[in-house]
Amino acid sequence: MSEDRSSQRLRGQRVLVTSCETYMGPTIVDLFRSEGADVIADPGSLLGPDEPAALVERAGPIDSLIANLDLPAYGARVRDIEDAEWLAGFDAMVHPLMRLVRAATPGMIERGGGSIVALTSSSPLRRMNPHATSYVAARAAQNAFVRSAGHELAALDVRLNAIAQNFVKNDTYYPPAIQENEKFKTRLQSEVPAQRLGEPNETAELALFLASRRSSFIFGQVISQDGGWS
Is the pLDDT of residue 1 over 60? Predict the structure, then answer.
């Protein structure tokens, strides 16, 4: 499907994109800039407790925040989960999300509203490989936070929503080596109703919609983007 790149759907908007070099960051940054947004693209991992607030302060007034956070899945049986690996998922994906939202919302409220889009995962929405329990728990916490905080912020016209994706091409979870694996191809055909991987631009387009005023009546939603898998 061809896109009209002259539409400037985000003209005049200032958007902060976190972890801009990983997961869905590069594609989102490219699309948003092509649509007229002033994008502040930050490559940091935001692991430090004060880093998210410092980033939001450096960015200045923003209309939208794209909380793009990822960590390669840690595989272990429940009885073998190590504390350090369990905590790493929450440190990389859950705590930064809360801190980003906490830091960004006061300014958005003061300016009359805004949008926050979290890039999460649909893995908690159905059972996955049991060895991924640690990863799934962290992603589930992200989704639960979005639902609860998103409903609270609705009265203040701050739209907090999540794109819960899976089976979308990206270097963290589905790099070319995985895509070319014959067992994975078979799994894709049997598990994913769409029988293909999603394209990064498909997620970026959904992020753009949620960041724009076109989604002005959507609050606290976790939207699946996984080819019907969940």
Answer: no
Q: Tens digit of pLDDT for each residue in 54-112?
A: 999 999 999 999 999 999 999 999 999 999 999 999 999 999 999 999 999 999 999 99
| CA–CA dist 177, 159 (Å, integer) | 37
Q: How confident is the model at residue 119 (pLDDT cuts 50, 70, 90)?
A: very high
Per-domain residue ranges of the chain: 14-225
Nearest by Cα to 162 from 145, 176, 178, 179:
145
C-alpha 97/C-alpha 69 separation (Å) is 8
How far apart, in whole angstroms, are the C-alpha atoms of residue 191 and residue 46?
Answer: 34
57: Cβ–Cβ under 8 A, 6 or more apart, which residues? 103
**CA atoms 90, 203, 222, 189: torsion sign:** negative
Top-tier CATH class for 14-225: alpha beta
pLDDT exceeding 90 applies to what percent of the chain? 94
Q: What are phi and psi of 142, to 5 degrees?
A: -60, -50
d(CA 230, CA 223): 10
**Residue 127 binned pLDDT confidence (cut-offs 50, 70, 90):** confident
**104 contacts 96 by C-beta, under 8 angstroms:** no
Measuring CA to CA, which residue among 72, 120, 69 is closest to residue 224? 120
